[in-house]
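**Tokenised fold:**
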Amino acid sequence: MNEVLGDLLDVFVLVYLDDILIFSKNREDHAGHVRAVLDRLRANRLYCAPGKCEFFQDEVEFLGYRVSNRGVTMDPKKVEAITEWPEPRSIHDIQVFLGFANFYRRFIRHYSRVVVPITAALRGKPKGAIELSAEQRDAFTRLKKAFTTAPVLRHFDPSLPTVMETDASDYVVAGVLSQWVPNAEEHAASPPRARTHTLHPIAFWSRQMVPAERNYEIHDKELLAVVKACEEWRHYLHGISAPFEILTDHQALEYFQTKRNLTRRQARWGLSLGEFDFRIAYRPGVDGGKPDALTRRSDLHPNAGKHYSAAEPDPANHAVLLDRGLFAKSNQLLPASEFLQDVIRGTASLDPGKAESLGLSKKAGVWLTAQGKWYIPPALVPRALQLSHDSPAAAHPGLRGTTVATQRQFWWPTLAQDVIQHVSTCSACARAKSPRHKPYGFLRPLLAPDRPWGSITMDLIEGLPPSTTGDGKATADSILVVVDRLTKYTVALPTVATATSKEHARLLDDHVFSHFGLPDQIISDRGRTFVSAVWSGIMELYGIRSSLSTAYHPQTDGQTERMNQSLELYLRLYCNYQQDNWASLLPRAQFALNQRTSATTNVAPAVANLGFSPRPLPDLPAAVPEGATGDVVKHAQLLEACQRNINAAAEAMAKSYNRSRVDRSFQPGEEVMLRTKHLRTDRPSRKLDNRFAGPFKILDAIGPRAYRLDLPRRWAVHPVVTALAQSGLSGAGQRGRGFPEPR
């Protein structure tokens, strides 16, 4: 029923199981609302019993209450049952009575105080028959009488003036929430407010103090009543149009909001009360009969029993509990199931010959297998799979779990195939679960360039502490790292995080291009400097092809990422305690790293780039005779060796990398899920967020591994992603909750 009337719920419809309540402000609206509900029921082939329907009522019975425009009262039939309740003769009788009475406790002023003597009889839970004491019988009688005199609790109106009355005794705290409601007539003899308004109760509340609370000073006990009453009615008191008034018979509380010296407990309560807009007013105890009436009773004893907490009845918080005998006969009650009725109707025309060939037999209108499982017709297969997989009770199990849950109660010839199709196309599972398959996409390494400095990579190391450069003329907080892809020679340049595209281009002019010439290609990440129109214009002017890495795929520029780690390690080892001299260490760091033999080329970058090995600082004894290195190979042969070694290392790395991956390609028009690892949202925790978003359509294939997705423009996320960021979802539906908008 919730699915059928989903968009109408809480607008003008309330539903509990098969009970539908339609509410409206006037008759004209009500007629339209009733027609809308009936049209929806007719469209879904749901039928109402005319004898059980009531239309255009000013007052109705709903879930044990009488609901009208005046407020909420108890069902007279239920009240009659309580007033005629016999005196309990056993612990079980007391528990049954209190369980029934608790349902209506919101109507009874000081309910927890009235039942104290009765709950005291539960201590120790003696077996067999018991006899109530005179005090307990008196409490039982008073409680039954309280039900017959219970007031009408009005509906809360946030626009009306609100009053909260609180009180505390030695062992109990209590409160009454009321509102000033306009009168139909004015009484001249009444006080000014009462002439035009009447104070109507909205709710009553009370509870016993725990032993620690009974040791509080009287001021803290009265303040405890205020705090707990505010927490009890928080859903009413938040967002009302004007400050509400708190009436107390403890005059010192009037000054609590301006009191300077507070204990830790009072300060903690003050923070709790800070979210409410209220004014505390003093009223002598003799004038406050409602919350104070029973706080002076002699039967309130520290050991008088425990408090029975009962929340206001809410259908969403309750379930139907069958006793064992009734549960054993549940098979006889199955025809009341909405889904079973659909199954009965869907198989009514099943050919007996076909049923016999399938091994089915008919019982109570249902076709069953030899194992007693329901036969599901093809039209109802999606419904059966939703019950076994999508429902909160099923909680989206995997393929095996869904198969077991489905086979436990249902059967149809293609069950196994349909379960596989349903689970594999469930978008809720695709969003929320971690993929169990190998990551998509083989590594396709870049081939070695044919000349030194023909292809370079570039990246920024940011987030460093400010440091003065070696010449003392500037301050830097970032490093621009440039690496030649063939020789692996590195240039590390101090810069600032706020540098513009023009300033970075100037650094390259002065320290790279002027020494090694213009490259054919520059590979970089998608930093703001490198994706700007200014940078693109400079690259076009120089005739350089700018290649940007795919979003969230650092493997494109893996060599610079590795060099960044080596630079950071060098500076971490040799910078001073204040970490403000790292910029002056960059030249030595660059020299040292270029002297190391590259694991990829088996040649030191300085040797590959210059053709000889620069003499290290400080001078060290030569490991080989002078000039021996230059006699081994000429520079050209050295570069050829670098190319061969780079390609061989790339092939070995790809082979190792691809060992744990599957080469999955997608075509334009297919739908895929996008990994949410790098998407930031306003949700509090990533741990409970969906792991994937989508599905999104592939608009175009950008190379063998990258794809342009049809992402919402408002997301401000680059639409080109690699296969590693995706998860295929063929035939993806839209079941389940979507991913929140990134920020």
In short: Residues 185-192, 293-336, 619-633, 730-737 have pLDDT under 50 and may be disordered.
